[in-house]
Amino acid sequence: MRVKCIVSYDGSQFHGFQIQKNQRTVQGEIQKALQKINEEETIIHASGRTDAKVHGVHQVFHFDTKKELPAVQWKRAINHFMPNDIYILDACYVDESFHSRYSATKKEYRYLLSMNEYNPFQTDYIYQYGRQLDIELMREAAQIFLGEHNFASYCSYDQYGNTIRTLYTFDIAEKDGIVTFTLIGNGFRRYMVRHLVGGLIQVGAKRIDKTFLEELLESCGEKKCLFKAKPQGLYLQEVFYEE
Questions:
Q1: Which position among 51, 85, 90, 124 bears the catalytic label?
Q2: DSSP secondary structure letter of residue 186
Q3: Does 51 qualify as catalytic in the annotation?
Q4: What pLDDT, in 10s, does the model give residues 161-201?
Q5: What tens digit of pLDDT does each residue of 49-58 get?
Q6: For a tag site, which of 2, 35, 41, 178 has the least CB within 10 Å?
Q7: Secondary structure class of 21 (helix, strand, coil)
Q8: Helix-helix angle 192-204:210-218, to 10 degrees
């Protein structure tokens, strides 16, 4: 039987989602719990990976099991073994055709930045930029990324393969000095959100203009974006599936 779970986690003390030898990861903690419940090794499959210090609000994963429990019991059982920085929000049985990654149709990421004075209580959750940015300039520049593009210039250096993605939403809101970048797309390559936000921060600081970001985009990877926002302000907000 296949179980789909929605999980929330504080990424501050994790070396990313994906399991890694001798490192604390979200996947590692969940699989340790499932091994105790299922009494055998259980591999989980997530909608995607998040990097070290990146947070998950509604990350999705699935696993296959021979153990028959009421769906509501899976949530309780896994949470019983979870550390206090991971929490299973929901668990349900799904058809075997469901796959957390390949069945996803859209993802939403949010990035939080503070233009206010440094706040030590926010440093793991909101990028402490500490200076004013021109919000309107950033909003205008963000529009160039909407639609389908080859985002090779805004991905990790070590990633190849298909870098064509469609961005449906790129909104920027500001309240009380906190800037929220909201991106919704059909998929994101590694570091893509952080490079896009990093480029816009440079525009908002008036160090570059949107033409420079357009040139990077149109180069399709020949020129690379060297601006990358810090991981602490990044959240995987939502994963969408067909109804």
A1: 51
A2: S
A3: yes
A4: 789 999 999 999 999 999 999 999 999 999 999 999 999 99
A5: 999 999 999 9
A6: 41
A7: coil
A8: 150
- The pTM score is 0.95
- List all residues 6 or more positions away from 164 whose beta carbon is below 8 Å from its beta carbon: 148, 149, 150, 151
CA dihedral 180, 163, 168, 115 (to 10 degrees): 10
How many other C-beta atoms lie within 10 A of the C-beta of residue 182?
A: 15
Whether the Cβ atoms of residue 173 and residue 111 lie closer than 8 Å to each other: no
Nearest in space to 13 (alpha carbons), one of 26, 30, 32: 26
* SS3 state at 204: helix
CA distance 197 to 216: 14
- 174 backbone φψ class: left, alpha, beta (φ>0; ψ -120 to 50): beta
Query: Within 13 Å of residue 149, how many CA atoms lie on the same side as its CB?
Result: 26
Rounded to 10 degrees, the C-alpha dihedral 155/153/129/106 comes to -50
In this structure, what token pair is assigned to residue 224?
């690379």
